[in-house]
Here is the input.
Amino acid sequence: MNCVIIGIAGGTGSGKSTFTNRLKDAFCDNIAVLYHDNYYKRQDGVPFEERKKMNYDHPEAFETELLLNQLAALRNGESVECPIYDYSKHNRSDKFVKVEPKKVILVEGILVFADERLRDMFDIKIFVEADADERILRRVIRDVKDRGRDIEGVVEQYLTTVKPMHYLYVEPTKPLADVIINSGMNEVAFQLVKTNIEKILNQG
Ligand SMILES: Nc1ncnc2c1ncn2[C@@H]1O[C@H](COP(=O)(O)OP(=O)(O)O)[C@@H](O)[C@H]1O
Ligand SMILES: O=c1ccn([C@@H]2O[C@H](COP(=O)(O)O)[C@@H](O)[C@H]2O)c(=O)[nH]1
Here is the structure.
């Protein structure tokens, strides 16, 4: 299948999911969306207290091979069963979501440009940018409200793994992007990307 794969990267709290989900809402079932976070490795044998302390911001935390295989299958016109991650359990859930092949596929995640094999699959690479203080403030609120965390835990995790990994693995991928956009709620950037996707979808 002739399709266009768009990678959307950026630090935690930058607004990647906000931007991606706005596009998903705009195009509904006409595009496919995959989230790298759903491909965090299964950790069934690791006790919860241990899982809480693990480094989720290193490329090795992900089963990227599965994402690569599923992207290749979608490109071949086959549907795939994507895993669904449960942040409150720090583990993959037992649920799956069926994703059908589409002409435009979005792939979102902090480290989607860090893996060369994945990066090479993207026709368009977008990096969502936001200042570190804004990102951590947003993350504190989101993780407490939506991901079952407490403030002390979010701060501890940010200082021990999230921040150092961001500067080691996420930030260095910014220059690899085709487009750097200023926040997930940037209306001009949203309209530019939306118009481009409309053009791709309308091509015969
Ligand atoms: N420009 C913005 N201004 C204020 N809040 C924002 C903005 N962008 C995103 N948020 C909020 O910040 C939190 C993190 O955004 P999210 O899109 O989940 O970031 P990411 O996927 O990059 O981690 C969410 O609760 C979201 O609603
Ligand atoms: O079990 C987990 C898995 C991931 N995380 C954190 O999630 C973010 C990535 O998601 P964003 O939506 O881009 O913020 C990453 O920084 C991990 O630290 C987690 O805390 N627990």
Notes: Residues 4-197 form a domain with the Rossmann fold fold (CATH 3.40.50.300). The two ends are 13 Å apart (CA to CA). The longest strand covers residues 91-99.
